[in-house]
Structure formats: structure tokens, C-alpha cells
Amino acid sequence: MTAERLGRPIPELFFDKTYNYMGQFVLSTSTLSTDTIVFGGFGPVVPNGFGIGYNVAGSKMGCVISSYRSKRDAAKFANAIAESLDTIHHHLKN
After folding, report:
1. Prediction pTM value
2. Which DSSP state fits 11?
3. CB 45 within 8 A of CB 27
4. pLDDT tens column, 35-53
5. Predicted confidence (pLDDT) per residue in 8-25, tens digit
6. Which class is domain 2-93?
7. Which residues does the UniProt record annotate as the domain Choline/carnitine acyltransferase (predicted)?
8. φ, ψ for residue 61, nearest 5 deg
């Protein structure tokens, strides 16, 4: 955008296939590591991605998952995370 604004050519890097592929973060997260914020949100940065805002405080953990309905199922992903955490918890107890 700066190059265009200044009337300069856009650097070749921005046309590189690998560079553009590496900018497609399907899983985008942000931690809310504070005792004063109970939960929050974080949106996906690509249309087919998930945004996950999470918090770990003491012995508790929570997250808010968002996605574009037409591309991903945030509820299904949340259930998979819960199931995974239950499995880990079960194995740690045994």
C-alpha cells in the first residue's frame, strides 16, 4: 500500500506464491492472560480460518472460538478441543 501511495512499484516479494501461502493463517490465536478479563474474542484472519481467544488462570482454562459460518464450524472445533482436553486430563489422572 505504501509503494502504491508513493507511486513506486510493488516489491516482487508480494507476488511470490510462497509468501502469499505463508500469510494464510488458518488458526489465529490470542491469549488473554489476566485475572481481570474472564473471556474475550479474537476473529479469524482469513475467511477459512478460526479465531481463538483463550485464557489460562490457575487451574482454569477457557476459550472463545470464532469462524465464518460458510467456511468453518466453530462449534464443532470447540467440541473437539473439549474432547481433547478431557482425554489429556483422563490420561494425566491415570
Report:
1. 0.69
2. P
3. no
4. 666 666 778 999 999 999 8
5. 999 999 999 999 888 888
6. alpha beta
7. 4-82
8. -150, 140
Contact 59, 32 (CB under 8 A): no
Strand partners, 27: 50
Residue-range domain boundaries for the chain: 2-93
Cell of 84: 481433547
Cβ atoms 69, 93 nearer than 8 A: no
Residue 57 in contact with residue 35, Cβ under 8 Å?
Answer: yes
Residue with cell 507476488: 15
E runs forming strands in the chain = 27-31, 50-57, 60-67
